[in-house]
Structures are given as structure tokens and as C-alpha cells.
Amino acid sequence: MQFGRSYEEFEVGATYKHWPGKTVTEYDDHLFCLLTMNHHPLHMDVNYAEKTTQFGKNVVVGNYVYSILLGMSVADISGKAIANLEIESLRHVAPTFHGDTLYGETKVLDKWESTSKDDRGVVYVETIGYNQDGKVVCIFRRKVMVPKNNYLESRGGEQPGRPTPQPDKNWAGPDAVEDKPAEG
Question: Which residue in 36, 124, 136, 166 has the most C-beta neighbors within 10 A?
Fold first, then answer.
């Protein structure tokens, strides 16, 4: 499985569909609200939401929706990133509710080489998130600094920092001949 891309692997116009989707539970939303100290009753209080909002039910906090979509995009877009440089825009265009399943996809809008270092470049992308009905709920654009192949090669290749398993009393190593069980 690929985790992120080098600069050379991005093509302007390419779209990456992130998989799998994520069903947002009430627990997820409440925990995120509590962790971020957002105690707005629109997200936390069913009675309030039913009686005072146009939706008649709790709405998932927007920063959680964004965080899910950003996280979904990591394996395809920023898994090898040197830095996330900018979130240019973020729009919540429709509500997400408890029980909705979010899906995302990201389109490469542009890319350019770094002007200060020749081993990296910037990728400009737009991610859209939509629910199980295909209704777009969130759109954001961001710029990500990604490495070129020579950057990765100089730091250990595809999986830098990954250790090599060491033989010991429990495992003889990859080249050891295993004892075959007796046939009977």
C-alpha cells in the first residue's frame, strides 16, 4: 500500500478517491467536542437541537468533519509531506449529522518546484467531502510541501526509519530453514 506520494508522482488534474468512508457516530462527535472544549448545544444537546434549530437534530461539529476528511487524504496526498504549508480555504456547505458516512476525494489543482531547495515541491489540492447520498458537505484547498524522489532516497527510501527485524530465540530470521512437521 502506498502512503503518500513524491512530487514526481503527482499529476495536475489527477483525482484521488479516499477509501474507506467513515460513519460519524454521536460518540465521535461528542468526544471531539469535549476534547476541543466546544460545548455548543447544537452538537451536544438533543433537546436544544430538536426545539431550537432548523435541522431538528444535532449537527456534527465542523472541525471534526474537516479533520476526518484531512485524515482520509493522508494516504493519498500528504503521507510523505515535509510540511502542510497552508489551508487556503475551508467551507462547510451542508450539515453532517450523527449516522452520516463521509467520503472524500482530492484533486490536484497545480504543482511547482520549490524555489529555495531543489529536493522538494509544492502541491496545491482541493478536497471535497460528501455523505452517503453524494451531498457535498465540506470543501477545502491546501498547499503541501512534498519531497522529490532524491529527498526520499537520501533519507532511507520508501519507508525511512523502519527497523529490520532481528533474529533471536523466538525467530531464526528470514533465511532460516524451518523444521517440517513429521508426517504420519
Answer: 124
> What would the pLDDT profile of 145-165 be if each residue is shown by its tens digit?
999 998 888 887 777 778 889
The one-letter amino acid code at 25 reads T
Q: How many CB atoms lie within 10 A of CB 32?
A: 19
Domain 7-154 matching CATH 3.10.129.10: the answer reads yes
What pLDDT digit, counting tens, does each position of 14-70 carry? 999 999 999 999 999 999 999 999 999 999 899 999 999 999 999 999 999 999 999
183 HSE (CA, 13 A, CB side): 0
Distance CA 24, CA 31 (A): 11
pTM of the full structure: 0.86
Query: What whole-number distance in Å separates Cα of residue 131 and Cα of residue 99?
Result: 10
What residues does 2 pair with on adjacent strands? none
